[in-house]
Amino acid sequence: MSPEKHADELLARIRVHGAIPRHVAIIMDGNGRWARERLLPRPLGHRSGMQSVRAVVKGALALGVEWLSLFAFSQENWQRPATEVGALMSLLEEYIAREVDELREKGVRVRVLGDLERLTPAAAAAVDRVIRDTAHNDRLTLNLFISYGSRAEIVRAARLLARDVAEGRMSPDDIDEEAIAARLYTADCPDPDLLIRTSGELRVSNFLLWQIAYTELYISDVLWPDFGRRELYEAVLAFQGRERRFGRVSA
Ligand code: FPP
């Protein structure tokens, strides 16, 4: 059976079950290994990974997922060789240039979350453009996490709260979980229902540490450039088989 037909069959099974995760988050990992296995330079692994981003957005739209969060570039990634960082920035620009029209037409709202001050001017301009051009859409929100680290995000929230207290807008006793969540980049998103990590690594790598408190985790052994619609649907089928208790006893 062709991979596309297999994916359609999995989609039909998911629909029979009915429970679709509202928010899917993905740690896209394994581009480097994918390239190494083929004796290719690492940036070509990232380029292939861009095709997987396309496939997963398509898959999420077909499923009716409302929020898709992709970890595209971590704060730690700035420490990679300049050529690789440059290649990733260029890919981000290329992805936006190639996809913006289709994303807009398909009802995808794109947002870019992280410390955007560090982006190259060209990448920052591309990011501004895609955010502006898709802001009115509401079928699927695609959160691209770029130059993002979860601990830094929490530190930023703490500073914002400290400022609100220091300037008399709130008292220390007003600080609760909601007040912290409201100062994260993800303030207006529901927490992820499902977090997928590819390439078999069993880590969360400083991604959405606050937000994944009750998220179901799914580790795929597939390297990101080989991850597509079919693999996304396999993850969702596994999610549908889980019993989510949020710390309570089972029914
Ligand atoms: C991890 O693989 C992946 C990244 C650091 C970058 C993710 C980027 C993309 C998927 C392509 C561009 C995305 C967009 C949204 C345009 P790794 O390099 O750490 O792989 P390794 O662990 O095998 O070395």
TrEMBL record:
Mg(2+) binds at D29, E216. Substrate binds at residues 30-34, 42, 46, 74-76, 78, 80, 197, 203-205. One of its GO terms (cellular component) is cytosol. The active site is at D29, N77 (proton acceptor). Keywords: Magnesium, Metal-binding, Transferase. Homodimer. Its EC number is 2.5.1.-. GO terms for biological process: polyprenol biosynthetic process. NCBIfam families: PRK14830.1, uppS. HAMAP family: ISPT. Belongs to the UPP synthase family. GO terms for molecular function: ditrans,polycis-undecaprenyl-diphosphate synthase [(2E,6E)-farnesyl-diphosphate specific] activity; magnesium ion binding. This is Isoprenyl transferase. Catalyzes the condensation of isopentenyl diphosphate (IPP) with allylic pyrophosphates generating different type of terpenoids. Its cofactor is Mg(2+). Binds 2 magnesium ions per subunit. The keyword Metal-binding applies.
